[in-house]
Amino acid sequence: xxxxxxxxxxxxxxxxxxxxxFALGSSVELPNWxxxxxxxxxxxxxAAIVVPPVLGxxxxxxxxxxxxxxxxxxxxxxxxxxxxxxxxxxxxGMAALWTLRWIGL
Length: 105
Prior knowledge:
mainly alpha
């Protein structure tokens, strides 16, 4: 019974926190330091999702012997830096990965 109580209280707490942003809306002004920090949330989350599958279980030691995933990720990163267009990043990254795997890397 205690476990269910924890789940219910946690769910209500999570709902209240998330709903507060909709309820308060633009009536609350975020401080400048918070707005500056929020600009980095999306890149940080993206990196946290993408980097582990690219590096694998070896972590940074995988950079010593780059495989298809690392080379494709570097190429996609260069395209992202150069074009700032997510469509081209996906096309070049996937084409590079498929090509590198096809040639046996």
